[in-house]
Amino acid sequence: MFKLLIPSTLCIATILASSAAYAGLYNLDPSFATAGRYNATFAGSDFRTLAHLARPDGSSVAVVTYDSNGCPSGRHCLALYPFSAAGSPGNPVQLPTSHSFSKRTGGVIVFDSFLVKSAAIDSLNRIVIAGSEQFGTVTQFKVIRLLATGQPDTSFDGDGIAIPGNLTGQNEDFARAVAIDSFDRIVVAGSAKFSASDTDFAVMRLNTDGSLDTGFSGDGKLTIPFDLAGNGIDGATALDLRAGGQIYLAGSAADGAITRIALAKVLPSGVLDANFCLTTCAFQGPYTAVNSGKRVIFFGQAGDNLSDFVSTLAVNLSGEMVYAGEHATSTVGVFQVFTQKIALNGNYVAEGLS
Question: Is 334 in contact with 323 (CB distance < 8 Å)?
């Protein structure tokens, strides 16, 4: 898998080959593009990489967002940068402005202000992009699917865009992560609002035609409460799937002023996996009541009273979770990167800080 890195100038993109192909652990692969990197200039502003997706034939495509340069005011537009396996660039494809995402305005800021969040690629080389769209005071999950050529896939909800509706009557849902299962169903995770001070984990699963999969939780939608201090701003920020369709979620749960790591495992039917962190789970701190499909954990010691935030998650073939994020090293906004590993049964295994 390639990575597209954006420096602070927001107009140069650097693409690096995967670590598996590195001559050394942190060396650039000279067989990719020019000495392991490719630089691209772009006329728009706010140019950033959403994802760089590997294709089965070894080629790849970078999904980027931008504004200005023909993008309507108040929108984040999308473009695709295709690359051969050797890093030779193809012709960039700018998506039609109808397939853009709104910029965030108003409301409670959940995690950050960008509404276009994540991308994945399915077994037919179709590109799926997920995020949220604002309609006045209403915010909903939004999913776009493109053909391998980059053109909108009209077999997906008629126009390549699915907006499946809200998970709660509060009408403020934010999608943060997307993944595609072995049936090419699309799973989107994030948060759903229940009140001004209470949001929960939220998950949707879509069929290949863009409709909600009613075989998942009865209506295609699921919310998962943690509510460590009665309520709080909780939400999933990372997602991974196993071949059988099990859904693994990681994110944050607020415990008063402290933000803890929240984990959940959902069965393909859309119910929590009760075998994940049983009541006999090796718990951390006071969170013994969070079990049977979910758990709360933190980096370091409970008495540190410091916050953690999860950015990414991976699940191996054995069902063990490894996730990474930011750990507050003080109460003044200084963070370091942490990693943790959780066993198949939900027990804590190991952690590291860098």
Answer: no
User: What residue type is assigned to position 134 of the chain?
Assistant: Q
Tokens of 97: 């402005």
Helix (H) or strand (E) holding 134: strand 127-135
Q: Are 165 and 140 in contact (CB under 8 A)?
A: yes
Residue 205: how many other CB atoms lie within 10 Å:
26
Distance, CA of 251 to CA of 242 (rounded, Å): 18
Tallying the residues shown for the chain, one arrives at 354
| pTM for the full predicted model | 0.89
What is the DSSP code (8-state) at residue 37? B
More confident residue, 338 or 23: 338
Q: What is the DSSP string of 258-307?
A: EEEEEEEEE-TTSSB-TTSS-TTS---TT-TTS-SSEEEE-SS-GGG---
For residue 207, give every residue at least 6 positions away whose Cβ sits within 8 Å of its Cβ, in sequence order, or none.
Answer: 185, 213
7, 128, 228, 289 from 231: Cα distances, Å? 38, 32, 6, 15
Pair 316, 324: CB distance under 8 Å: no
Q: How far apart are the C-alpha atoms of 236 and 312, rounded to whole Å?
A: 10
Could you give the count of Cα atoms lying within 13 Å of 122 in the half-sphere of its Cβ? 22
Instruction: Please tell me what DSSP assigns to residue 348.
Output: E
- The 10s digit of each residue's pLDDT in 122-165 is 999 999 999 999 999 999 999 999 999 999 999 999 999 999 99
